[in-house]
């Protein structure tokens, strides 16, 4: 559902804050709604962009979303947990990504991409490679999937290599036309593993105190900034509360955010949870609406860059309320936009009664039920593969 802005230049709407533009670093967004990265497993098996992915993201851009994060995209050849994840560890991915970012931009949205290394949350059966992590502590969830699950502690050479892989992937993404590059340091993946005392037991320069645990992330942000300067905005996604004993809590970010900002982040995307607390990554209905907004607002106290809140925000009205409360400047809607990619434009036009609502069944978390790809129970465009046949 595309809106011709020439026809509705100053449309009165009920959500003036949501529909006010905002700058994140060098990038201007037309509104405050973000599509948070979803690994939908729609890429081709070689990690290139498929027609199905093009359609998925084009629908979100058509629907009015201000910033569409694509991905996640894998930065190193030794890591993945899915067979159809987008990749950015080689130039062969550039033509497909160029097309994807252009499709999003031509529809009036800003294209972003999230960069990932899975660390101990990868699967050797997918990559054929040994798993690496800051410390050789198995992931309690992934180790149940593989009888021979084994993870080894990264050497300093591994750390430097992965750092360079993130920077090289960011450069490729910018070359292909991404305007916002998100470094994934949330949800228990490699950079989260480094940041957290729960998963990082190192005693060298990359472990121990807060700065050491943040060192790899800081080096990556600095490296991206040095290479790309203000050509792109840099977003950092963190789990503001890991919801595991001994894990990160909001107050642990007190001294960290300033460090990240000094290296050049332009936006802080605050999520929650790691694999052991999966219910925090995609919160079920039992946790109620917007259960993590207060975590975003706690981190916002330490931040000067725009903060994005996420988690069970299912309407533009609730997004407006959160921005009005001063708890976040940007609001990410995942399931709500997959259920109806036109939720933003329909809300802008006062057509809320036409919005197809997410029923919070969480069947979109395809990996928890062994399904091959993301599907949605209410959006006929994303049917379960068996139902298509
Ligand atoms: C199918 C699916 C895939 C996801 N993949 C990613 C991902 O690759 N990276 C990430 O940071 N978060 C990922 N998430 C988490 C979402 O970005 C988002 O934080 C989550 O859906 C909560 O937002 P919502 O309540 O608006 O759906 C995924 C969630 C789902 C349901």
TrEMBL record:
Enzyme class label: oxidoreductase
The entry's keywords: Flavoprotein, Oxidoreductase
Any Pfam family: Oxidored_FMN
Domain NADH:flavin oxidoreductase/NADH oxidase N-terminal residue range list: 18-346
InterPro entries xref list: Aldolase_TIM, NADH_flavin_oxidoreductase, OxRdtase_FMN_N
EC numbers on record: 1.-.-.-
Entry-linked Gene3D superfamilies: Aldolase class I
Entries under SUPFAM superfamilies matching the protein: FMN-linked oxidoreductases
UniProt GO molecular function: FMN binding; oxidoreductase activity
Record protein name field: NADH oxidase
Organism: Sporotomaculum syntrophicum
């Amino acid at each position: 559902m595309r809106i011709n802005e020439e026809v509705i230049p100053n449309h009165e709407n009920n959500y003036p804050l949501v529909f006010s533009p905002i700058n994140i670093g060098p990038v201007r967004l037309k509104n405050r709604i973000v599509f948070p990265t979803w690994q939908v497993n729609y890429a081709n098996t070689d990690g290139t962009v498929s027609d199905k992915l093009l359609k998925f993201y084009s629908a979100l851009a058509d629907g009015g979303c201000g910033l569409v994060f694509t991905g996640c995209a894998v930065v190193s050849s030794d890591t993945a947990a899915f067979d159809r994840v987008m990749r950015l560890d080689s130039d062969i991915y550039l033509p497909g990504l160029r097309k994807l970012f252009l499709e999003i931009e031509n529809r009036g949205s800003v294209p972003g991409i999230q960069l990932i290394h899975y660390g101990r949350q990868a699967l050797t059966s997918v990559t054929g490679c040994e798993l690496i992590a800051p410390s050789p502590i198995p992931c309690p969830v992934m180790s149940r999937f593989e009888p021979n699950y084994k993870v080894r502690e990264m050497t300093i050479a591994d750390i430097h290599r992965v750092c360079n892989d993130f920077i090289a992937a960011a450069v490729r993404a910018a070359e292909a036309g991404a305007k916002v590059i998100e470094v994934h340091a949330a949800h228990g993946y490699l950079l989260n593993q480094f940041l957290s005392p729960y998963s990082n037991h190192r005693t060298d320069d990359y472990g121990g105190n807060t700065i050491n645990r943040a060192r790899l992330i800081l080096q990556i942000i600095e490296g991206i900034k040095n290479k790309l300067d203000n050509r792109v905005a840099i977003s950092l996604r963190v789990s503001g509360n890991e919801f595991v004993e001994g894990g990160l809590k909001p107050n642990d970010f007190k001294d960290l955010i300033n460090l990240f900002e000094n290296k050049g982040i332009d936006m802080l995307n605050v999520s929650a949870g790691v694999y052991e607390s999966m219910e925090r990554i995609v919160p079920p209905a039992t946790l109620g609406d917007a259960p993590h907004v207060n975590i975003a607002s706690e981190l916002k106290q330490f931040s000067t860059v725009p903060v994005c809140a996420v988690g069970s925000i299912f309407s533009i009205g609730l997004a407006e309320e959160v921005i009005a409360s001063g708890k976040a400047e940007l609001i990410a809607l995942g399931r709500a936009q997959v259920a109806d990619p036109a939720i933003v434009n329909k809300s802008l036009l006062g057509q809320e009664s036409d919005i197809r609502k997410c029923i919070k069944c969480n069947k979109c978390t395809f990996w928890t039920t062994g399904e091959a790809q993301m599907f949605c129970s209410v959006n006929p465009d994303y049917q379960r593969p068996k139902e298509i046949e």
